């Protein structure tokens, strides 16, 4: 809207004005849909530099509103073909970035308003909406009262989980150093498991934690790759014995590789009597706790200091949106607050207890994220969001059942929420890696991988707003098809290497297996790549 107004105000010439209003030049919805459906693979088959080679080295010197149409054509012809389509119903990689109409509308409204609510005074409604909406979401997730404004804690909306970790480590650090002296920063130790997201390591490094004081506690098959309270306690005691100072634990509810859930209550119990800040990273799986049946994942949080989850992952709030709740907002403000900024001070606000969100985050400026989250909660309702999450979990269970029904595959770790980890059994990590590459090369499904306990697994994370049963079934067929082709290729190689064995016998025997054979591409079985 702002661009159009600008163009109307100062058109370069009549042609430019005509170009701006010509529907033929717009990226019209029908064309967009046609191209999206017919042309774009989920993950583009492009090589590095593909776009920069097609664009000029420098920005245009002169403004040229007439070029908006040409620019939009570039979006269609150059940029969209190189985008990984996270909103494709066939996107099963990583964890989804869910989208909704109201989420997008909230983003659009925020972009149009373009406000900067760094203090209450800088935009009272934006700040107060954030206070309200973080309490709403916290209540919907059944967080303990002490993490909500209504219970003395409070929430904020940041961009990412990494920011949530960084802000809370810094709060914990400053609180601890105020007690033991700033010169002991080198003694502070932080704890997590080997399944914790790498962004925690980044946050710890930025917060000044020595590399050697980052404890990544190993997990195992026995504990389902969750952090063992006993192992945590042993590590903490060893550090204390060596004169170091345990500072912060990052527990995860829904780890990135397998969506494992650390036993938060037991971890807190193991740390009882020690002043260790406990943060719960529930970036993905926090959303599921909106459903009573998954609430177990986020229980016994009374003793935790902070929790974060990303509504942009699984709660229909378009990118970006990370909700962080803290039990002691004053600790955040003490570490991140600034009060010598006379210009920002509002005399009315200073006399009252208002939230200045600039003091809860790294930067001064911030986005109006509350609007989209409020719209999502208001329009979908908590029950609507439960239905959304449950739909994905049901589809993931169906996918899991299909994997288990094919004897060539295994599900090495239990399905957690809507994430299914699976692999071809009795074969190598390399073969499974080839399978993932082959599946993704079809352009009809996009999955990712995890390596846990030394085992390579494919990850099918169902969570896209547009994904339906048929997409899940199709994805599984693609996996089976590619697996068949790869296994047959492998048999050929094995047979060639084994002079005592007739290759065609082996292949023929394999072809008798209906599960392996049913989806074999027509033609020569060396044909691995399935055309889109
Ligand atoms: N924590 C977990 C468990 C995640 O899965 C992810 C990303 O997927 C992150 C943290 C990092 O999230 P962000 O990109 O919001 O920093």
UniProtKB/TrEMBL annotation:
Cofactor: pyridoxal 5'-phosphate
GO-annotated cellular components: cytoplasm
Gene3D superfamilies named among the record's database cross-references: Aspartate Aminotransferase, domain 1, dopa decarboxylase, N-terminal domain, Type I PLP-dependent aspartate aminotransferase-like (Major domain)
GO annotation terms (biological process): amino acid metabolic process; carboxylic acid metabolic process
InterPro entries assigned: Aromatic_deC, PyrdxlP-dep_de-COase, PyrdxlP-dep_Trfase, PyrdxlP-dep_Trfase_major, PyrdxlP-dep_Trfase_small, Pyridoxal-P_BS
PROSITE patterns: DDC_GAD_HDC_YDC
Any one Gene Ontology molecular-function term assigned to this protein's record: pyridoxal phosphate binding
Pfam families from the UniProt entry: Pyridoxal_deC
SUPFAM superfamilies, sorted: PLP-dependent transferases
Keywords: Decarboxylase, Lyase, Pyridoxal phosphate
Similarity-based family: Belongs to the group II decarboxylase family.
UniProt cross-references to PANTHER family, sorted A to Z: GROUP II PYRIDOXAL-5-PHOSPHATE DECARBOXYLASE, OS05G0510600 PROTEIN
Designated name of the protein: Tyrosine decarboxylase
Source organism per UniProt: Eragrostis curvula (weeping love grass)
